[in-house]
Amino acid sequence: MLIGIIKQGKEITGDCKVVDTILSHNSFRTVMCEGVCATSADQIIYLCERCKQRTVESKRSLSENKGFRLICRACNTKITNLQRYGVESTNQLPAVKARQQGTDKTYVLGNNYQPNKTHNSEELSKLRSEITKERWLRGTYDNSHDSMSAAKKLQWQDSVYVAKVKKGLNNKEVKHKQSVASKKQWAQDPVGKLRAIKSGLRAKLSKIHRKIKGLLELDKRGFVSEQIVGKYVVDELNEETKVIIEVNGDYVHANPNIYKEDDIIRLAGSCYSAKEKWIYDNIRTQFLQELGYRVIVLWESDLIDDMRARVALALSSPV
């Protein structure tokens, strides 16, 4: 039974029901309570149909995962286990009981809990296999990921679709809007924007960065990776000696020893000339130097011994 909704921290109770509504020309199902529609950010209050307990759950979870079935998570897990294994909890399975009680010597405890190929582990594996085959036959197996992947492959085989995507990536109007929005974010909250960039760095460090950092043992020299200095996020920073190390890939940063100023660097979603990159990097370096930092640029193709010598000299010399 539906009890109410929680919208912006305020609890609304009364006449509640699941309704079909239209918003921005899109039809969807939601919960309406006292004339107020619940959005994906709101929470739904209801009594679980199985255990009769008062439950609070997000509207998104209730609609996407359960189709507005008023079943709490604990009961939903029990129902799923009953359908799959015939018991409410997998702890009741003989193979799992033996593993928990330590009587099953066929399981080895290590960094990963991996079973050996024995009758106990095979029993559970066989059961899961049979259930999976049954769901495939019924057409209820979740193969949405494979379907989406196949659909994407078909799309990229369509020359019209590919041309449309490329046109969108190179659309000057779209790029201008993105630029304006980005500048607005920088103006309103530069520190927050920098933190977002820092947290969004893929794997934090590039492969080249990790390699050079390890070879030079920068951690032992007092350097910390990906630090905010002024309006930039620098690769390595030693705040005590005011030394910044920038690890530059030859291609991405257009190494002047390799590329000419009119050479074009092409990356996913961006394209620029070597000269444009040099100008940007020089402006960045000058800004950091004006703040009192010594900036050392290490290139991907530099010799490790030369890198070590330059870093050692920078740390030993005053700014």
Kindly state the percentage of residues in helix.
40-55%
CATH fold-level label of the largest domain? Endonuclease, Chain A
Roughly what is the average pLDDT, rounded to an integer?
77
Write down the secondary-structure element order: EEEEEEEHHHEEHHHHHHEEEEEHEH
Overall geometry: elongated
Overall number of structural domains: 4
Label the CATH architecture of the largest domain: 3-Layer(aba) Sandwich
**From the helix content, strand content and strand pairing, which structural class follows?**
alpha+beta
Given as residue ranges, the uncertain stretches (5+ residues, pLDDT < 50) are: 105-119
Report on the structure:
The protein has 319 residues and is an alpha+beta fold. It has 4 domains: 2-76, no CATH class; 93-138, no CATH class; 158-188, no CATH class; 197-316, Endonuclease, Chain A. Helices cover 43% and strands 24% of the residues. The protein has 11 helices and 15 strands. The protein has helices at 59-64, 73-85, 94-101, 119-138, 144-156, 159-169, 172-188, 190-199, 207-216, 274-290, 304-316; strands spanning 2-7, 10-13, 16-23, 26-33, 36-37, 43-47, 54-58, 107-108, 114-115, 224-229, 232-238, 243-248, 264-267, 270-273, 294-299. The strands form 5 sheets. A 4-stranded antiparallel β-sheet has the order 2-1-6-7. Strands 10-11-12-15 form a 4-stranded mixed β-sheet, with helices on both faces. β10 and β11 (232-238) form a beta hairpin. α7 (172-188) crosses α8 (190-199). It starts with a strand and ends with a helix. The relative contact order is 0.05.
